Design the sequence.
């Protein structure tokens, strides 16, 4: 296995800890366990995703099961300190995505008097396909007071425009925006949380966590090898999503190009986040027919109304016996479809969330929507304008947070760092 | 207060103190060779008012230097002699208006600053002090023992003031003077909060003096500062608070005697500096510490001062072993002080419940930024 050495390292540490607990008879058991680990069948969900590349991992990477998204405020005006932190973050991200500790010393190998340079909760865990993806918000280029703190205002990409107010928006400023974001995705929530926690710690004095969001149960598939998952409304979500295998379409819809107005973003992508609270309890009282009419798809198969297979092409002109369109005019699938949005497509990468309950006995639950695109002005904004005005689903959802970020191109190798094309 | 950490620290303390005693024997820690009680001019008079700090002489010979500080202002003042980085060479606390107090301090040749702190807040009114003479360079071990000596002087000056101010507070409570007791409560606590990690070494006394209501165990009485705080602010009825006040005074006397006798190790200083910031992060930012009076920022400020004093005592060692860390610490302490300074009101502070969430987050951010480099100090000292 390609990443066998890495995984063995974490296991060895875990075993060392186990040895302390039970000394007698431990050796035989440990040997057997080690052998078993060496022989175990490949488990791709535990593997590492390459960190270096033309594009950042975590965009077209097959969507992992878990999310920890975090937005930061930059609390220094010192450009050098910011760049130094981005370099430190990049090195730590390269290590953590390979299944190693955040710091060069490690969680349990340092001086006994010093706090460990890794927090330790990922010891013994595999890489779990961890990806870390960084993005820069509009306020990094010019803050709320209009200051160009880091001398980069002139480099703000035109595509990184503030999102307009959409009808019905109920945004909470304290969980919106952010100067920087990190999307941590992994197949083990502890691995994702470990990564965010260690980056936040390394950033003390330079950045401060503005808000963070845990997500589970990916709500989109970003590869044809993945089955389409369901959102908390019970519907398949992301059937028509852009996927890793879409080559040319990705260049057209996902990756920023050198000629798009910000050469430093070439190979990067723009991320829009929206925390969408679902009014689960009223939705659950809606009839099956109403639910399907709202989405425009069958709840069981995911097929467009009037069709039988999930991936069947939608026939927007088909009419029922009553003469009305089979896929209603105000259905979600119709309003969001590229055919009705000047061809705009998104690579969605959202996750379900349940933040406990809301004190009124209701689940505080919904979708943490995330979508990557080449230009939000032509893609997310266009689609969301339609949805916000007309979508029947709006009765059951509230957009409570919003963010837009320029995610720079990939880190090319150990000497490169997140943001080099912007700050270098 | 936290007991688990201090138990762990106690083990370290014993071992390290023994080692230190073994290797530093013979050093007087002062490193000066000229001696003399600046006999040339006798004690140096310091005239302190609310706005001035006149030091009669600013050039002296190395050795024991004596200052006589007279406070003719209207506010309680303090007098300090600082080495580089605000390392406290000596200080005298709680100089009430009209009083003269003496400070004797061992000063090797070098440049220093004197400071009066009317109202006990801020950087104080500074002036230069030049000490001439020859000073032998200190060996590394001597630097460490000088650090602990210096910090122990600091502890003793704080405990002396703690006794006095606690007595005044207790007297006001017993006299039924609610207004006066309320005014003295955060002031007396300042001396406690500056050196709390030292006090915490003495397990059972700390909860008796500083325990919050929820830490009281079955069969134990809720006593100490916070019990009186509750009486003063929540019910306003202190007619039955006398016995609790007496008990507080007795407990403070006991802990002061123990703290003054305690031999501290350089690691104690490093860990204490970090623990004080942990106190800020867990108790003061949240407003849990002084939940009835909301005077958490007094404690916050005292914790930061205490942390800075411990780090400053270690400064010569840190400067030699990790100059980068020293500059990080300097800028992070400065950031905390300027951020906290926004909330100063006269000689006191805004109440915790007068701060917005954004202001509290800003304070939390600067404490986190400071606590990271402070947490690296122990390993550097242990090298």
Sequence:
């Amino acid at each position: 296995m390609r990443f066998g050495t890495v995984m063995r390292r974490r296991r060895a540490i875990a075993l060392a800890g186990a040895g302390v607990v039970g000394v007698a008879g431990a050796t035989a058991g440990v040997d057997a366990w080690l052998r078993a680990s060496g022989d175990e069948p490949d488990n791709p969900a535990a593997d590492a995703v390459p960190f270096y590349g033309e594009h950042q991992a975590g965009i077209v990477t097959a969507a992992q099961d878990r999310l920890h998204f975090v937005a930061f405020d930059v609390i220094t005006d010192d450009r050098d300190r910011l760049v130094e932190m981005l370099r430190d973050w990049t090195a730590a991200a390269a290590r953590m995505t390979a299944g190693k500790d955040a710091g060069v010393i490690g969680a349990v190998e340092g001086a006994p008097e010093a706090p460990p340079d890794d927090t330790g909760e990922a010891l013994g865990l595999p890489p779990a396909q961890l990806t870390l993806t960084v993005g820069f918000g509009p306020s990094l280029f010019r803050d709320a007071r209009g200051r160009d703190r880091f001398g980069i205002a002139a480099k703000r990409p035109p595509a990184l425009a503030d999102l307009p107010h959409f009808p019905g928006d109920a945004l909470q400023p304290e969980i919106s925006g952010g100067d920087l974001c990190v999307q941590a995705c992994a197949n083990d929530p502890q691995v994702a949380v470990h990564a965010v926690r260690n980056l936040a710690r390394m950033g003390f004095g330079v950045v401060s966590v503005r808000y963070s969001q845990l997500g589970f149960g990916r709500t989109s598939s970003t590869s044809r090898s993945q089955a389409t998952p369901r959102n908390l409304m019970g519907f398949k979500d992301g059937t028509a999503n852009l996927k890793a295998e879409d080559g040319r379409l990705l260049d057209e819809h996902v990756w920023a190009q050198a000629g798009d107005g910000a050469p430093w973003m070439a190979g990067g992508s723009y991320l829009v986040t929206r925390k969408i609270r679902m009014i689960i309890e009223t939705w659950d009282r809606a009839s099956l027919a109403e639910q399907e009419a709202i989405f425009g798809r069958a709840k069981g198969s995911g097929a467009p109304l009037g069709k039988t297979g999930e991936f069947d092409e939608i026939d927007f002109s088909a009419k029922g016996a009553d003469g009305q369109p089979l896929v209603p005019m105000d259905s979600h699938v119709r309003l969001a479809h590229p055919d009705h949005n000047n061809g705009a497509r998104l690579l969605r990468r959202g996750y379900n969330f349940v933040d406990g309950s809301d004190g009124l006995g209701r689940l505080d639950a919904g979708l943490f929507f995330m979508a990557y695109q080449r230009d939000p002005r032509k893609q997310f904004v266009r689609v969301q304008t339609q949805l916000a005005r007309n979508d029947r689903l709006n009765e059951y959802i509230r957009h409570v947070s919003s963010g837009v970020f320029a995610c720079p191109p990939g880190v090319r190798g150990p000497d490169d760092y997140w943001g080099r094309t912007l700050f270098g | 207060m936290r007991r688990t950490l201090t138990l762990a620290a106690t083990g370290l303390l014993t071992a390290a103190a023994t080692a230190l005693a073994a290797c530093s024997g013979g050093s007087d820690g002062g490193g000066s060779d000229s001696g003399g009680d600046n006999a040339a001019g006798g004690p140096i008079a310091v005239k302190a008012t609310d706005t001035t700090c006149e030091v009669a002489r600013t050039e002296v010979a190395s050795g024991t230097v004596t200052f006589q500080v007279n406070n003719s202002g209207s506010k309680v003042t303090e007098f300090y002699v600082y080495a580089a980085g605000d390392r406290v060479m000596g200080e005298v606390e709680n100089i009430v208006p009209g009083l003269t107090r003496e400070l004797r301090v061992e000063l090797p040749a070098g440049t220093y600053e004197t400071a009066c702190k009317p109202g006990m807040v801020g950087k104080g009114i500074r002036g230069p002090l030049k000490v001439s003479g020859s000073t032998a360079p200190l060996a590394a071990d001597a630097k460490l023992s000088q650090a602990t000596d210096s910090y122990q002087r600091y502890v003793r000056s704080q405990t002396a003031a703690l006794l006095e101010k606690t007595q005044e507070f207790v007297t006001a409570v017993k006299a039924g003077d609610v207004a006066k007791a309320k005014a003295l409560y955060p002031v007396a606590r300042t001396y406690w909060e500056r050196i709390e990690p030292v006090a915490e070494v003495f397990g059972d006394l700390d909860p008796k003096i500083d325990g919050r209501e929820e830490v009281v165990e079955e069969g134990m009485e809720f006593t100490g500062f916070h019990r009186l705080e509750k009486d003063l602010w929540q019910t306003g009825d202190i007619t039955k608070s006398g016995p609790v006040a007496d008990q507080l005074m007795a407990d403070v006397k006991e802990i002061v005697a123990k703290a003054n006798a305690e031999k501290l190790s350089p690691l104690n200083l490093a860990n204490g500096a970090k623990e004080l910031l942990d106190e800020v992060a867990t108790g003061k930012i949240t407003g849990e510490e002084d939940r009835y009076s909301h005077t958490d920022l007094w404690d916050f400020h005292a914790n930061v001062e205490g942390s800075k004093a411990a780090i400053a005592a270690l400064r010569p060692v840190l400067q030699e072993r990790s100059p980068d860390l020293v500059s990080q610490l300097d800028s992070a302490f400065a950031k905390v002080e300027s951020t906290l300074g926004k909330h100063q009101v006269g000689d006191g502070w805004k109440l915790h419940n007068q701060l917005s969430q954004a202001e509290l987050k800003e304070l939390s951010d600067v404490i986190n930024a400071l606590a990271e480099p402070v947490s690296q100090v122990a390993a550097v000292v242990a090298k």
Remarks:
- The CA atoms of residues 317 and 325 of chain A lie 6 Å apart.
- The beta strands of chain A are 66-74, 131-136, 180-186, 207-218, 269-278, 347-348, 351-357, 363-373, 397-407.
- Chain A has two domains: 4-39, 44-423.
- The longest strand of chain A covers residues 207-218.
